[in-house]
Amino acid sequence: MKPIVEIAQRAGVPEEDLELYGKYKAKLAPELWDKVKHRPNGKLILVTAMNPNPAGAGKTLTTIGLSQALNVIDKKAIAALREPSLGPCLGMKGGATGSGNAELLPADDINLHFTGDIHAITTAHNLLAAMIDNHIHHGNVRGLNPKKIVWKRAMDMNDRALRNIVVGLGDGNGTTREDGFMITTASEIMAILCLSENMNDLRERLNRIIIGYDFADQPVTAKEMNAVEAMCVLLKDALKPNLVQTTEGTPVIVHGGPFANIAHGCSSVIGTKLALKLGDYVVTEAGFGADLGAEKFFNIKCRKAGLTPSAAVVVITVRALKYNAGIAIADLQAENQAALEMGFANVLRHVENLRGFGIPAVVAINRFATDLPSELDAVIAMCQRNSIEVAVSNVWAEGGKGGKELAEKVVRAAESNADTFRLLYEDSLFVKEKIETIVKNIYRGSSVVYTAAATKTLKRIEEMGLSHLPVCMAKTPYSFTDQADRLGAPTDFEIHVSEIRVSAGAGFIVALTGSIMTMPGLPKKPAAETLRLETSAEAIK
Amino acid sequence: MKPIVEIAQRAGVPEEDLELYGKYKAKLAPELWDKVKHRPNGKLILVTAMNPNPAGAGKTLTTIGLSQALNVIDKKAIAALREPSLGPCLGMKGGATGSGNAELLPADDINLHFTGDIHAITTAHNLLAAMIDNHIHHGNVRGLNPKKIVWKRAMDMNDRALRNIVVGLGDGNGTTREDGFMITTASEIMAILCLSENMNDLRERLNRIIIGYDFADQPVTAKEMNAVEAMCVLLKDALKPNLVQTTEGTPVIVHGGPFANIAHGCSSVIGTKLALKLGDYVVTEAGFGADLGAEKFFNIKCRKAGLTPSAAVVVITVRALKYNAGIAIADLQAENQAALEMGFANVLRHVENLRGFGIPAVVAINRFATDLPSELDAVIAMCQRNSIEVAVSNVWAEGGKGGKELAEKVVRAAESNADTFRLLYEDSLFVKEKIETIVKNIYRGSSVVYTAAATKTLKRIEEMGLSHLPVCMAKTPYSFTDQADRLGAPTDFEIHVSEIRVSAGAGFIVALTGSIMTMPGLPKKPAAETLRLETSAEAIK
């Protein structure tokens, strides 16, 4: 690991614009933006994926590896990534910083408290919650309906016991009401932080958060709770992007990490825009597969921030192809050419969808040590048969060198892209029309069914004048449909919208299909049970 | 503000042992201890206070000012202070970093997230809580009784609605049971962090935490929940002391901040021991008045860490003297010599108590701009009449210069102290005997009355073999008695112990008198409503 001052130098960031957090992490001072904002933007590359098997596709790994590979072929590249959430790190998932020879460093720090951004968001979130209950307790001048508070509490932890709770029990402890905790990455504040252009934008968005409804059923905002200035103070450092490095010393901006279901699943706009001024190529990723991640990256993040991506990478794996053909997880290792062919329909559709946004797509086969050469060859042949650019990515084993072919093809795609990027729908459509557009064009479903509650909320949204907002789909990542077991490239299905939520601060309408969990639980044997202090830390006297 | 690297230099700390958090805050690397541990210790000065009026006595201010004043008279002095809790800063209290010309810098950062220590403690606390409910959810192999879980959840927030809650409602969300949140500073982990000598000690203490009881009513520990290694990882940086500076550039170690009622209310042992190697004088403080703060500083912190204080400062104010004579708050400003005389009984008793520990005491009259010279003179005369060293401290207005006389008297007291420090009671006494010793010798009460529940727990403590632990009294800070309105120097009263708690990890038995609140609420107009971003932070583009 090199000192972060050195990495910053590599990215052209002067030492005076670094706020160091130890020797290997730094926040980038707001003054830096003023110095670089007049530069032309680098090219923005989105790394997305096919629908994954439950083990994941290696999107973060590929993003890191590709940024290294671009440097190997002498392009000045920077990655822009999301911050890992602590809850899943202690739960099922382990880290979220890549691995092998394409890893973010210092991985442990980044996976744990990092520079405190998520803790700051938790605190701002819970301050607002406390001030809501306090407002009701001290006379409720605003006339908040305690049964219609939609602002829950937040914690960066996997803790199922906090999903549904009753608060305010006992004498003098406020109003008794139902409540619940979400994991902090699901907080609207996380989405807001990631979509804000600057502190003033952050403040305006926080002001607009709808925290509940009054007795006349009118929305009540965070602004009315007098909490927003304090929330801005709590978030002032969290709004500054973080700089770290990869195993090969490639600079990486790691900033923000909203959920990819009830939020848009992309790293911060501030971090991405800064990266575009510092690198000729900026590699970023979006959550889940392209049906959710890329669609929201384009229709929410790029729309709001005015970003123009130049190319997309679709990460696929041999295992995920077979999984998408319906092969059981236990049988994914066995050679099965027929299954590869069948599962390839999934890849094909994602590539078509990306082309629909006017974006050239390159398929990256994320290679596992156990992959059979015959199967890799078959997948390459399938891509070529369909005129899809493809490269095997071996960055886990080889680092940047293992991504050279991918990097070259990405550069070619990006250079040949004639600025044809287009959004899928106009702001002016009704929310239902936007949802239908996504369902028909991206998922390839036939129709959308709404619950009565969802329909009622959609009507409220029109009354509130919020129809112009883009839609944030919350859906299973495993299928184009809303059912996790309908794999491959299904057609002719209904999408069931169970609930509509308004994230007026973030600036999108969330359409929930099925039940989306915003507070994960710990598994029987949590990752926390096997975490160990390294020797260095243990030496604390 | 000087760069922290420069302040460190002043304290003889090489740059390589600093882990910077921005330009003005740093953590001290564990390696530093090895370099300095063979040095002789500096002299340890405890700043404590008379029973305060509700506005407080200015203990932190005096601690900071005295450390500056010692430097003014050419002593190499360092302060060792507690970290402010965010909850009260956003609630009633505003900051906790001194003020005027005796302030910690950067005050805003220290009052808010600082270096993330309290967030790390919150996280470690809630990980343990989540793993307890998860253990029950996944089969409860250990046989935990869900109705006898004593480990609550924690948040660094004033939030009365979370005091008493029900968790685990709804299908698949764990076992429904009563629970509650405490403010993080009340977490046993905060007390543990502050009493630990090193990482191994921290681990052993965490292992010993009693989280609840099984169906056979036997204690269950954190160790049995397999959470402790992960908690150590989460706390590895929080265990490192933080270095900041005062308005005059005096180095200050700010580390840890446990409650002064259900915990011992002192900054960390690690920070204090390190400070004693770096300074010839180390000025530290303990929470509340000397009846609680100093008693626990001596009998818990000094006992456990083997520290030998050289002198104590008793901070008094003209207003607190009158308040202790029963004068109403609205009338505290009016000249009232009789009330001063009457209130002085309170000071006298605290000084006597300190002398009982073998510690010379210097009274510091913390001067307010509104104090009448005639009253200041009267208080000085009363001290002199009783052979008590006294100095007016004007550090708020004048900084270190305003504490010169105090500094000189403290140095004289410390130099003349012939190592006569002694603890109040032996480990070997029964818990009831320890409590009685404190009540009779410090509070000057006549007897102790226990509830049936408290008596039952005391019996359990003997059965568990924990009688050797010192006692941590949780009592109102406004009176020597357990009733806030019995001011001055009352005698002949009963102390009512309502509940006994075991902090087996921290290593003390908590005796609660009356109802002690571990989760504060927000006032009608919280300080959060008036927090504002400074211009510099607002410039974020």
Describe the structure.
The structure is a homodimer of 541-residue chains. With 541 residues, the first copy, chain A, is of the alpha/beta class. Chain A folds into 3 domains: 253 residues, 3-Layer(aba) Sandwich (Rossmann fold), CATH 3.40.50.300; 118 residues, Domain 2, N(10)-formyltetrahydrofolate synthetase (2-Layer Sandwich), CATH 3.30.1510; 83 residues, Formyltetrahydrofolate synthetase, domain 3, CATH 3.10.410.10. In chain A, 36% of the residues lie in helices and 20% in strands. Chain A has 19 helices and 23 strands. In chain A, strands 1, 2, 3, 4, 5, 6, 14, 15, 16, 17, 18 and 19 form a 12-stranded mixed β-sheet that branches. Chain A has a 4-stranded mixed β-sheet with strand order 20-22-23-21. Chain A is globular, with a radius of gyration of 23 Å. The interface between A and B is large, with 82 and 82 residues. Chains A, B: Its EC number is 6.3.4.3. Chains A, B: InterPro entries: Formate_THF_ligase, P-loop_NTPase. Chains A, B: It is an enzyme of class 6 (ligase). Chains A, B: Keywords: ATP-binding, Ligase, Nucleotide-binding, One-carbon metabolism.
